[in-house]
Design brief:
- By secondary structure, the chain is mainly alpha-helical.
- The chain has one domain: Tetracycline Repressor, domain 2.
- The chain has nine helices and no strands.
- Helix 1 packs across helix 6 and helix 5 runs parallel beside helix 8.
- 29% of the residues are buried.
């Protein structure tokens, strides 16, 4: 292996190590409060090394969002896309989100729910990026609900758009309540609500 290739691989490993720590810190402490100094302390990397990896604080924030999105896609979205279209996929997305909340290795809930509350009132590119990711999630729920309606899996009086909105709001609310109380019955109540809206067998 050439020295330049080894340096590149080491740099990639350091970046991944830093981002894993950064997502955790940002979810708990907030994107704005996260500094290179704080990240250096948490990741065991030097501040100068982190500056070489990310440059500015905004570059670091965008990298954190990208890393969190990658994790969310891997844990929630990609497995759900293997389910049949319509109600089964809609249920899989919701169940995947609940599992994503419950299986966090630290008490922080969903990254995007946490960060949305932080940056929602702060206009700028970071807020716009978080809002864009939230819209994509909402669109995925809406597409699955619409397909469920087309397949006759929803009641004739059910609005797919309204259903998707209510499910998204319910999941975000569950995230907040679970984060505060950590009771498994909270997620079970949400699953009962999913059954009521989507049916046990769909």
């Amino acid at each position: 292996m050439t020295s330049s290739k080894r340096i590149r691989i080491d740099g990639e490993k350091s970046r991944e190590r830093a981002l894993e720590a950064a997502v955790r810190l940002a979810t708990i402490e907030g994107l704005e409060r996260l500094s290179l100094s704080r990240l250096a302390e948490a990741s065991g990397l030097s501040k100068s090394g982190l500056f070489g990896l990310f440059g500015s604080k905004e570059d670091l924030q965008f990298a954190i969002i990208d890393k969190a999105r990658e994790g969310f896609m891997h844990e929630v979205v990609i497995p759900a896309l293997a389910a049949p279209e319509g109600a089964p996929r809609l249920r899989a997305l919701c169940e995947g989100y609940l599992d994503h909340i419950a299986l966090r290795e630290w008490p922080s809930g969903c990254f995007f729910a946490s960060v949305a509350a932080e940056v929602g009132g702060r206009p700028g590119p970071i807020r716009d990026r978080v809002a864009s990711d939230q819209k994509q999630w909402a669109s995925l729920l809406r597409q699955s609900a619409t397909r469920a309606a087309e397949l006759g899996q929803l009641g004739s009086e059910e609005s797919p758009e309204q259903l998707a909105f209510e499910l998204g709001a319910m999941l975000t609310g569950a995230d907040i309540v679970y984060l505060l109380h950590r009771g498994p019955e909270i997620l079970e109540r949400v699953r009962s609500a999913l059954n009521a809206r989507l049916g046990e067998g769909r």
